[in-house]
Amino acid sequence: MLSTILLRQLTDQVRELQTAARHLQTLDLAALNFKPTPASWSALECLEHLNRYSRFYNSELAQALSGKAVNMTPHEVGFSWLGRKSYDTVRPDNGKKHTTIKHMNPAGSQLGPEVVDEFQQHQQRLLELLAAAPGTNLNRKAVRVEFFRLLKLRIGEALQFVVAHQQRHVQQAQRAVAAAAVPRSAPVLVV
Questions:
Q1: CA 43 – CA 28 distance, rounded (Å)
Q2: Structure pTM?
Q3: What is the homologous superfamily of the domain 3-181 according to CATH?
Q4: Taking the C-alpha atoms of 71, 76, 81 and 85 in order, what is their torsion angle to the nearest 10 degrees?
């Protein structure tokens, strides 16, 4: 995909994530902390998971995008094997469940509305990074992988990974709050 088109698409997707987060900010704490099942995450746990990743990847992306501007012309953005595998794992339409690494798992955390505020701040920072990206070679390997920092992703594939991962878990958060809105019937004793 051409770099200019990719960056425009990612920018639009991040703005959609911001809109979804603004909706979550209007909900009460009980809805945000509701877990559809005991093993699933609440909306706040979904966003806290994303915040933990954003703390790492926004910093990595900022470093990769800093430095001397190259004034790259629009170029085709490709995937390495690692980039494709990473992206395919987290894309929202991949229904396969995955377990996260321990330090990125927010299950059981005491979370409040500040989690949504932090998520919004990360999205704003990501928009700034996307705005700084057009003059950069998006095929350059420059973004360390969080769980194994000796590996690096290309800048373009890292941006796609981050946004797809966020879309996946924001959709999960939306399902959790939708489940919280479904009236629960009282258990019926059958004798």
A1: 11
A2: 0.90
A3: dinb family like domain (1.20.120.450)
A4: 100
